[in-house]
Amino acid sequence: MNFSIESKLPNLGTTIFTKMSKLAQEYNAINLSQGFPDFPPNQKLLEFVKQGLDENHNQYAPLAGLISLRKTLAEKLFKSYGSRYSAEEEITITTGATQAIFTAISAFIRKDDEVIVFKPAYDCYEPTIELYGGKPILIEMKAPTYKIDWQEVSAKITSKTKMIVINTPHNPSGTVLAKEDLLQLQQLVENTNILILSDEVYEHLIYDGKEHQSVARFPKLAERSLITYSFGKTFHVTGWKVGYCVAPEELMKEFRKVHQYNVFCVNHPMQWALNEYLQKPEHYLELSAFYQERRDYFLQQIKNSRLELIPAQGTYFQTASYKNITTEKDTDFALKLIKEKGLATIPVSVFNKNQKDEFMLRFCFAKKKETLAKAAAIINSL
Ligand code: PMP
Ligand code: GLN
């Protein structure tokens, strides 16, 4: 190479999900690492896709997404959280939540802006903030309860704080924010210009009768929030990469300025099919019961193992401490589990501040019972 490049993200490697899924394949291991179901989506949804293709919904969709789908989502948001969003101005269909998050950050974050991120955190927030010159301000939540210390948040807010990123139900910990957490947040940002990016991709995966505390339920938070959602999680189609962003008109205007040039518009036949499928709310309302049964099955299968755990409150991830088995680094232990025992998991330290090791692994239970039973047999042998 006769020229030099200066990386904008010099310290960034490949995501842990790609690494672990690749290793799982290489070692033919049971894959409870990357979060995706190993069972197919509902046949009805697939039939709608075929219909969408046959009826020739095959050209560009509108920039913000199919208006029929956005109207359905506006209605769903009202029914779920009592909040009114305009289908025309305040909802945009995106290429998964990843693009919604990227676009939201890039539309608002400038050089030297501070963005508060709670650690452990899903891995796409910080690189995106850094790409636009922003500074992630990291606040730790500690295993195994992963609670937010709001006093610490208050202490970390400065005149440079531009945005706070929250994620509930939370990946990787499987915990959820309570109403009191959102009220604390609301109080902290009142009379500031701080924006909230609320990643709610697991809104319908919440257990034991808990209610999802969307920022959309809190008008004073909603007025300054961009919320991201993913059909991949809700309808077992992570490979489709279709999601959406919801925000008040003034914020959405800025979001769309970026959206129109980083994607312009999203896969048309999939949007058409999703709108048809969404006409029956039970398709998403039954999700919590569906995954709670899987969580309970998995926990029942490993109840005599040496793992220590608190049942996941939401998401399809169960975290557990393995410190009764070994005090090896979680990244080493996870590698050993793949190579020697045939089980792929995610070491939680990769999401932690300074990769702090708390001897925790994350297991994805969005799997067939037979897969979970095979994984449990390995876990019980440790
Ligand atoms: N946020 C969180 C917390 C996630 O776990 C994921 C992963 N699926 C995403 C965002 C990205 O969602 P999508 O696959 O729709 O891009
Ligand atoms: N959200 C998924 C997880 O946490 C992975 C998404 C990805 O591979 N980027 O496992």
Automatic annotation (TrEMBL):
Start and end residues of each Aminotransferase class I/classII large domain: 29-378
Record SUPFAM superfamilies: PLP-dependent transferases
CDD domains with a match to the protein in the record: AAT_like (cd00609)
GO molecular function, one term: transaminase activity
InterPro entries: Aminotransferase_I/II_large, Kynurenine-oxoglutarate_AT, PyrdxlP-dep_Trfase, PyrdxlP-dep_Trfase_major, PyrdxlP-dep_Trfase_small
Keywords for this protein: Aminotransferase, Pyridoxal phosphate, Transferase
Cofactors required: pyridoxal 5'-phosphate
Domain of life from the UniProt record: Bacteria
Protein name in UniProt: Aminotransferase
Native organism: Mesonia mobilis
Organism lineage string: Bacteria, Pseudomonadati, Bacteroidota, Flavobacteriia, Flavobacteriales
